[in-house]
Design brief:
Length: 293
Amino acid sequence: LVAGMEHLLEDIERGHGHIQIQQTDMSAFRLGENIATTPGKVIYQNDLMQLIQYEPTTAEVYKRPLIIYPPWINKYYILDLGPEKSLVKWCLDQGYTVFVASWVNPDARLALKTFEDYMHEGVYAALDAVEKATGETEVNAVGYCIGGTLLSATLAYMAAKKDKRVKSATFFATQTDFTEAGDLKVFIDETQIDTVNNLMGERGGILPASVMAHTFNLLRPNDLIWNYVVGNYLMGRTPQPFDLLFWNADATRMPQKMHLFYLSECYLKNGLAEGSMELGGEKLDLSKVTCPV
């Protein structure tokens, strides 16, 4: 019980007055040493992202590069936890030239960045950088979670602009139709969006990383909250090292303008699926996307 109380006090201190449950031994992992270890280098960066190009592992590579857009709600290395779990390494071993967008963890200076900015400074900027690095104008693209929602919206925008650089798109855990968005809808209505907006305003125009982390924990409370209340506080145990939960705890902030657009346009209006969402003056029509998906 004494050990459990110490764990509780540590978690309250870490959360600055709110309980921030430690789900894994955070000291067990070091980026680049035993997690996110696939060799690569940053070949381009701007305000919103760094583009990583990974070293090939095969004597020959496919002509068309592979570019991955992960979510900016978490860090990119979910796709490179360790050699035996790394999608990045697996793709390299199949002969692909792999690029991954590593999104910035924004501060108040980026509060006014929009969803459209993420398209131009994320998807488009990465396509230009890949062409500069490889000489190739055509790519295969992967979008994961909100990175996939952005990619699908961008593909609709590119279709309107007759831009055919993306030759195939693969989506992981991506929503384009938010009609049945699951338990997350419990946290999203007009009133709660106003509350989030006010919170972001108080914090200089960003959503604190702890808010999203807490929301995701509440989606699976038995696994991600009560399991640790019992183990850490009542039983006095120290959590075991677990790479996925280390990644989960490495949360990121979000710019106010972009986040409000995403919550309103996708969750409230379902604008991408309904054909009412606009980016760059173009009304997005997913039915115009003709590349293999």
